[in-house]
């Protein structure tokens, strides 16, 4: 755990479910037959739309759910950003300061607690090294990717495939200026601390790590292989993803974020099932008075399986705040 990218990635256990999925569609289409046979269709890219340029002033999408005595602001986050981006202003800031509670996906535990949990869940217990679990062709591709990143090919041998995927994805981003301590949640938590308001998480660290760790090993390996295949596109994809987020282009952002979740098991585990659980949470929370700022990964707020879509099916109205 001495490597910098490993110590950072334990605090972003579900980062990969968004960032590594921002690869171009033609890359997704080239995944192996095994993965395709167990897949769902990713949203088709619109040929009429061009990638957004990074704005000087970011205005990410914001929604509100309200009744006579309860208001929930719904905000999509990016878990890792470059320092210096300005987005906490205008309607986002006003909505946050109108709230008396911040709810995020997961409240980070003490680093020593997380490190212990990662040791229990992310380190292989079988005695078989990561590379020995890969086919000859996949191992060659994996080692080539590690070499291009100037990382020793054996560095991830003790890890489960899912955690190797997370770690591998973060390396090029962090080398290109992204900082795991500069995500949207970090700034929101800083403001929440300054205001001394209640902060809670929808999920525990054990749950978030468990989403990956409980995947069958062959699914984890498919995920790792996809990461290897798209590793050279991660930074470019992330830049486009952040630009779409900053411009509040929800549909385009959803296409980018969910493009790589073509494996149905992963799509359901990391996106759909969690949105179903969160929709139930919103329903129950609306029965209690108060104002809540709910911030979850932006990929959960786009597409036909979005949190808003599931809430609409339950008769809960979600209104976009234009600003």
Strand order of the largest sheet: 4-3-5-2-1-6
Radius of gyration: 19 Å
Structural class: alpha/beta
Q: Based on Cα principal axes, name the global outline.
A: globular
Number of domains: 1
List the secondary-structure elements in sequence, H or E.
Answer: HHHHEEHEHHHHEHHHHHEHE
Low-confidence stretches: 1-48
| Count of separate DSSP helical elements | 15
In percent, how much strand structure appears in the residues?
Answer: 5-15%
Give the number of DSSP strands.
6
Could you give the distance between the termini? 44 Å
For the sheet with most strands, the description reads: 6 strands, mixed
Task: Give the averaged pLDDT, no decimals.
Answer: 84
Share of helix, binned: 40-55%
């Amino acid at each position: 755990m001495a490597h910098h990218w490993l110590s950072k990635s334990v605090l972003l256990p579900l980062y990969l479910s968004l960032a590594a999925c921002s690869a171009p569609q033609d890359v997704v289409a080239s995944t192996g037959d095994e993965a395709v046979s167990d897949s769902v269709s990713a949203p088709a890219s619109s040929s009429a739309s061009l990638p957004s340029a990074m704005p000087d002033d970011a205005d990410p999408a914001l929604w509100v759910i309200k009744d006579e005595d309860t208001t929930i602001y719904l905000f999509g986050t990016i878990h890792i950003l470059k320092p210096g981006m300005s987005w906490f202003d205008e309607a986002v800031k006003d909505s946050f300061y109108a709230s008396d509670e911040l709810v995020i996906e997961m409240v980070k535990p003490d680093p020593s607690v997380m490190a212990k949990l990662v040791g229990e869940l992310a380190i292989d217990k079988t005695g078989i090294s990561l590379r020995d679990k890969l086919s000859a062709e996949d191992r060659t591709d994996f080692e080539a990717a590690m070499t291009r990143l100037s990382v020793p090919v054996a560095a991830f041998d003790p890890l489960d495939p899912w955690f190797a995927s997370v770690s591998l994805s973060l390396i090029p981003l962090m080398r290109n200026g992204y900082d795991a301590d500069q995500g949207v949640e970090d700034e929101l938590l800083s403001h929440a601390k300054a205001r001394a308001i209640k902060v809670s998480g929808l999920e525990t660290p054990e749950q978030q790590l468990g989403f990956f760790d409980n995947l069958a090993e062959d699914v984890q390996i498919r995920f790792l292989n996809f990461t290897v295949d798209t590793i050279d596109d991660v930074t470019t994809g992330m830049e486009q993803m952040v630009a779409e987020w900053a411009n509040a282009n929800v549909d385009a952002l959803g296409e980018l974020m969910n493009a790589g979740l073509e494996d149905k098991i992963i799509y359901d585990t990391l996106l759909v099932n969690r949105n179903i659980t969160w929709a139930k949470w919103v329903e129950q929370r609306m029965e209690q008075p108060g104002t809540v700022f709910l911030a979850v990964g932006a990929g959960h707020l786009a597409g036909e399986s979005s949190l808003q879509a599931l809430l609409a099916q339950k008769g809960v109205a979600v209104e976009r705040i234009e600003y």
